[in-house]
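Working notes for the structural subgroup meeting. M.R. asked for a predicted model of this chain before we commit to crystallization trials. I am recording the input and output together here so anyone reviewing the notebook later can reproduce the run.

Input as submitted:
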Amino acid sequence: MSQEGCCQLGQQEQMTAEHVLVRCDVYCDWQDRPPVYRLFVGGELFTERTYIWQEQYLEEVIPVYAEPGEYHIRYELVPPSQGTLVIKNQRVSSGPGTIVNNVLKVIAHAST
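Returned structure, recorded in token form:
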């Protein structure tokens, strides 16, 4: 993932991409036809899936390899899909990052 407007510190310190693993629980309430949904991370399409399960939450695993910065995580139903998409329990399970209100903050890992 790229990030615009990266600030330069001191002697043009180079940013290093970090590995962050994000998890969340996904649920879709639907009838008739299974809906299709898309997941975007930082404005880039991460995946498009058909939600075929009924009355069941699934754990979504989102591996992110990105430079330090903030990346918005967004889900959307693909028209003409009908249903209600519920995303809960977003969390960083590994790597240098935090997530609050659908925004992943990748943190620069201290070099040794």
